[in-house]
């Protein structure tokens, strides 16, 4: 099997940051998500790149009544209630027309109508599988709700990205959540990078230590952890739900660190080249709202990456796929 280029986008708008920032705190980024989606579709089509939009289920709602009618039978019972988005629902607008921070049906329909890309799930409510108090049964109800609201738009959910990457592919403690996904016919998920600094279980007390944050930041620009590319047909032998691990997060353009931007992009394109030559997968991800500020600079960086993909496609047969598209290819190789 040739090498593959996968891009997954955590499509969430304010539902992804409600526990950290208000809309006003992050308004420029959030208010431009619609424009970002339009430009992503145009640029990816120009270069033949397929995208997977892993979408928070709440964004599918036509209006507040529709949103509430799709609430799951069980909501997450976090010990820290700040992690639940349900208490803020009474204060959001009634529809996308007056609140584009909590509804995105127009963008979802554009992605669907484009036909080249995938709409996966980012859970219904941006569910945190590692936060204390929630249960796998509540996660089951959440995924059921996410699939149901997507179905109203004729979309069948087949892939998942776990919010805040709260999943460990090989840990017994997380198996119940993967079992839920399999129960609901979800066939792939984005696991964490294989490097240790990305793979510390979220429940560990030292997960948030500054030293690990610093190492992850440095790894954006210089090679600390390697390329994080994968022989996906090998790592998924014996699996019933396939792990398509992250290779790299595409961090937003930084004015403070703009002198390092060429190193950031070179780090990505070198890993892509390695994946193409070794017939491995390179999986890039970010959030659309990351591009909401300094939009032109972010898209210039992305176009450089896409140009590299085009060259690798011509030279090595490097192929762009959605998460489900690659999963289907892996199935044919393994089976």
What's the quick description here?
This protein has helices spanning 27-31, 33-47, 64-69, 105-114, 136-151, 175-183, 210-221, 232-235, 261-278, 295-316, 323-334, and strands at residues 4-11, 52-55, 118-121, 159-160, 188-189, 242-243, 248-249, 281-286, 319-321. It is an alpha/beta fold.
Q: Which percent range describes the beta-strand content? A: 5-15%
Rg value: 19 Å
Largest sheet report? 6 strands, parallel
Please identify the top-level CATH class.
Alpha Beta
CATH architectural group: Alpha-Beta Barrel
CATH fold assignment: TIM Barrel
Quickly list its features.
single chain; 335 residues; alpha/beta; TIM Barrel; six-stranded parallel beta sheet; three-stranded parallel beta sheet; 11 helices; 9 strands; 39% helix
How would you describe what is shown here?
- The chain is an alpha/beta fold.
- It is built from 11 helices and 9 strands.
- Strands 1, 2, 3, 7, 8 and 9 form a 6-stranded parallel beta sheet that branches.
- Strand 4 (159-160), helix 6 (175-183) and strand 5 (188-189) form a beta-alpha-beta unit.
- The radius of gyration is 19 Å and the shape is globular.
- It starts with a strand and ends with a helix.
SSE order and pairing:
Layout: E1 4-11, H1 27-31, H2 33-47, E2 52-55, H3 64-69, H4 105-114, E3 118-121, H5 136-151, E4 159-160, H6 175-183, E5 188-189, H7 210-221, H8 232-235, E6 242-243, E7 248-249, H9 261-278, E8 281-286, H10 295-316, E9 319-321, H11 323-334
Parallel strand pairs: 1-2, 1-8, 1-9, 2-3, 4-5, 5-6, 7-8
């Amino acid at each position: 099997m040739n090498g593959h280029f996968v891009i997954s986008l955590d499509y969430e708008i304010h539902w992804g940051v409600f526990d950290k920032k208000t809309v006003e705190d992050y308004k420029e980024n959030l208010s431009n998500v619609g424009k970002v989606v339009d430009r992503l579709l145009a640029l990816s089509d120009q270069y033949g790149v397929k995208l997977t939009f892993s979408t928070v289920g709440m964004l599918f709602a036509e209006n507040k009544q529709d949103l509430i009618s799709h609430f799951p039978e069980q909501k997450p019972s976090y010990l820290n209630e700040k992690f639940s988005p349900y208490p803020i629902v009474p204060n959001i607008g009634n529809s996308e027309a007056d609140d584009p921070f909590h509804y995105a049906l127009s963008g979802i329909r554009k992605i669907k109508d484009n036909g080249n890309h995938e709409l996966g799930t980012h859970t219904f409510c941006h569910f945190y599988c590692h936060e204390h108090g929630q249960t796998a049964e509540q996660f089951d109800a959440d995924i059921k709700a996410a699939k149901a609201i997507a179905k109203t738009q004729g979309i069948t959910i087949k892939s998942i990205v776990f919010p805040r990457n709260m999943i460990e592919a090989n840990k017994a403690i997380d198996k119940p959540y993967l079992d839920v996904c399999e129960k609901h016919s979800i066939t792939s998920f984005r696991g964490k990078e294989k490097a240790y600094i990305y793979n510390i279980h979220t429940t560990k007390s030292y997960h948030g230590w500054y030293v690990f944050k610093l190492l992850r930041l440095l790894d954006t620009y210089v090679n600390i952890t390697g390329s994080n590319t994968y022989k996906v047909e090998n790592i998924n032998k014996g699996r019933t739900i396939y792990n398509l691990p992250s290779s790299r997060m595409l961090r937003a353009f930084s004015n403070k660190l703009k002198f390092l931007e060429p190193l950031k992009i070179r780090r990505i394109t070198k890993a892509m080249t390695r994946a193409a030559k070794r017939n491995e997968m390179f999986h890039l991800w970010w959030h659309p709202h990351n591009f909401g500020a300094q939009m032109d600079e972010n898209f210039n960086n992305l176009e450089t990456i896409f140009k590299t993909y085009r060259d690798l496609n011509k030279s090595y047969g490097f192929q762009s796929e959605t998460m489900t598209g690659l999963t289907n290819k892996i199935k044919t190789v393994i089976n």
